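Thread: Modeling a multi-component assembly for a lab meeting

Hi all, long-time lurker, first post. My supervisor asked me to bring a structural picture of a complex we are working on to next week's group meeting, and I have zero experience with this. I have the sequence lines for every component (288 residues in total). Could someone generate the structure of the whole assembly? Inputs are pasted exactly as I received them:
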Amino acid sequence: MSQVKEKTTDHDLVARFKAGSMKAMEKIVGRYEKSIFNFGLRICGHTQDAEDVMQETFLSAFRSLSEFRGETKLKNWLFTIAANACRRKRRKRKGEPEKELSLESFMPREGSEIKYEIPDFSKDPGEELLRSELRGVIESAVQSLPGKYRLVFLLRDIEGFSSKETGCILGISAKAVKTRLHRARLGLREEISNHYKGERIHG
Amino acid sequence: MDDDCKALFERISEYLDGDLEPALCEKIAAHLRDCPQCEDCFEALRRTVGACKELPRHDVSQDIRFRLRETLREWLTDRKSSKRA
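Re: Modeling a multi-component assembly
Sure thing. I ran the full set together rather than chain by chain. Output:
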């Protein structure tokens, strides 16, 4: 007999929660708390803010779960609430101007001998120490991105939402998502490469 | 950078994601084979995105997880008592 146990779907859990199941609420939280917390942490940059965002997201979600429609994925709905909570937090923190990233600034200069230095561990797993260094470099590079680019990058490349889904979560077009994602990735490439170039020169 | 390079530069993220129509994909692939500067530019972007996608999630501390559940439990209790009232 097959021992495969089917995973309870999000929609099943929502239905159970609506019927009064506390366990269903625990399961929904367990399923998404880590991703929502990390999203909040990488957008806001502070553990306390990330905790606030996570609490606000789940409280708001459970409060209005009766409005949740079956055609939306629960994860998308939670991230829509979380993205709004993050934006409110960021607005409260003054003094962080929203910089635009221009495509031209990332274009190789005429006649320049550009060589990017980005470690590639996809072919060679490399030493754990080097991988851990790269993770730290990426985390700092992500923090250096202006907010609106960071939001798109995290939803697309870290959470794996499609351009259309990311657009729905943020209330912008899929085209705007693609434009911002491209600039965010170029910004990250620049930051990471500059780090390793600097290390080679000074290290 | 000539016009072909500039046109490619604008679309390489979509190319990487496989979001472009086949004819444009083939055009970009051909350009990358012939232009070392664009190939370098694309390869660096590919590595960047690949490394970013492998970024692990930070663990949520026990304290934070506990406080979240406490908050939700309190809210549920309040909701139940206000419904009864």
